[in-house]
Predict the structure.
Amino acid sequence: MGLGILGGGLTGLALADRYGEGCEILEGDAACGGLCRTIVHDGLSFDFGGHILFSRDREALDYLLGALGDNVVRYRRNNRIWFKGGFVKYPFENDLAALPKQDAFECLHGFLTRDYAEPGNFREWCYYRFGKGIAERYLIPYNEKIWKTDPSALGLEWVGGRVPEPPLEDVLKSALGIETEGYTHQLYFHYPRAGGIEALVRAIEGRVRAVEKNFPVRKIRRRGGEWIVSDGRREKAYDRLVSTIPLPDLLGAMDGVPPAIRDAARGLRNNSIICVMVAFRAERPSERFAVYFPQPRLIFHRVCFYDYFGGCCTPPGVSSAVAEVTAREGGEISAMTDEELAERVAAGLEGEGFLSRGDVVATRVARRKYAYVVNDLGYADAVAAVRGFVRERGIVLCGRFAEWEYLNMDACARRAIDCAAGLKGGGG
């Protein structure tokens, strides 16, 4: 057969959709979607992570929204940061007036008096871009929770465009209580009217002709001019191969990987995600979708409230708080039972005044091994070596975990669109 696509997450599905006839997806799970999945539990639904649709890339966004058709609603962003018992508008530097006065002064003073050397790691970058007050009150503690890594050990490859430097004018306005908007490309976002974010992958999957599920990639080899892919029982043959599966898994299936490349691959680090849903009785729907928690004492870094989307995700009178917890494989958090995690999250939310455990009606825990690529200081060299080896072998890499790059859904769609065009044009 022509083109084999390893992995049926959002990238793999979009690639197959744009490529058209002559390709087949091999998906290891019983269902496609990867991280773009929705969990349904007793009339409640939530996603793996706070997936919403927005982008500066109009073509990629139009592709994603076009797949959903009429099954989409546009929302104005109303996310908040929880700081010292009150809400601060996201991003933090655009709502300094909401802080206690001493904190507001130190954040503004730190921003105005920045005088740091060119940064060499993420911790230094936070001070360099935002000053001591904002760095220490929000950026550093929040990112420590996500990455499970000292910010001094994080590189800067992932930062560009994600945490832009705020204009001086906006920071001054925010300190005086004048309304400003940061990250304007996120001011509005879209979400499916029904079916959660998984509705997106189901819509794209419906346009893809050939998908083989329950086919985990165990072995990849060359036979003449063909690629032979095996799940340990069955074999598939292709003229060309694109991988969207995690780079370490791909290497594990390939023959003849040199020791130097395997050593480099051991330097590819990632965090898993654990989503803990706590449903509780509530008098009114949440006014905001996402709340960010920089406090080190809390196990979660972000909580999404799915009653924000109305009755598509929660029944009337019930709020669904979905806490995101990152973990390192083999670490303390990953070893916790579902019951322990649900208790920690419920206790944390109760302690901050978001719920009473007497009102809890259901909990559910979902885990995913690959969630966040960790850009530590060894990232650039390790990923370049591994990517280079795979591409020299003739396998095209596309997507978040295949390229081992921190990509949002719109960027995954972009990579898929470009990859399909390149393959159809004779590239790849």
